[in-house]
Design brief:
mainly alpha
């Protein structure tokens, strides 16, 4: 499990850096600049070390550089409110890649129920699109308090809930399949009630 969170943290390091710097300084320009520099440094470091980079890392880098540059150039608060929805749509589109989630699963899950992991990946993509659409609707109101509530409580809560449901469902399915396989191995190929 620790390895899964390490991969996720690596893939979204620049977004995490942006959030931390912004929360500490309340300075969008500084946070954006540090996130862009951090994302570029992360890719250079990985290349120097000879590490393999996947599409999520490159997608995260592209989002940070493109959206960060537009933020720095426009300094438009409406764009700032809509910016997370663009990121959610982009991440949702990336999540439409078949089997993307297998990389983040423990081997027992990836080997036992790859079809369910693939379905969960598509469900995550749908969730990103729904959250992004909701974010645009909330941003259109211009209410910063409502937007902040949506992005933290609603969007964050939906992701936590989705993760919890996915964990429980995959755990139940894997356990069921492994028990059935153990019964088949123990009693032969004949299925026992």
């Amino acid at each position: 499990m620790k390895d899964v969170f390490a991969r996720l943290a690596s893939d979204f390091l620049s977004a995490i850096v942006f959030l931390v710097v912004y929360l500490i300084t309340d300075n969008v320009v500084l946070a954006t600049s540090v996130a862009i520099a951090g994302a570029i440094a992360q890719v250079i470091y990985a290349r120097v070390k000879g590490q393999q980079l996947n599409y999520m890392t490159y997608a995260s880098l592209a989002l940070v550089v493109v959206l960060g540059t537009v933020t720095l150039l426009t300094n438009d608060p409406r764009f700032m409110l809509a910016k997370p929805s663009i990121a959610h749509f982009a991440i949702g589109a990336i999540m439409l890649k078949r089997g993307w989630m297998l990389r983040y699963m423990p081997p027992i899950v990836a080997e036992t129920v790859p079809e369910y992991v693939t379905a969960a990946g598509y469900a995550w993509a749908a969730l990103m699109f729904v959250i992004g659409a909701g974010m645009i609707a909330v941003a259109a109101t211009g209410d910063l308090k409502l937007w902040a509530f949506y992005i933290t409580v609603v969007a964050g809560g939906a992701k936590i809930l989705a993760f919890a449901v996915q964990y429980v469902v995959l755990r139940l399915i894997v356990t069921s399949r492994r028990r059935a396989a153990a019964r088949r191995d123990l009693f032969g190929r004949r299925e026992w009630p």
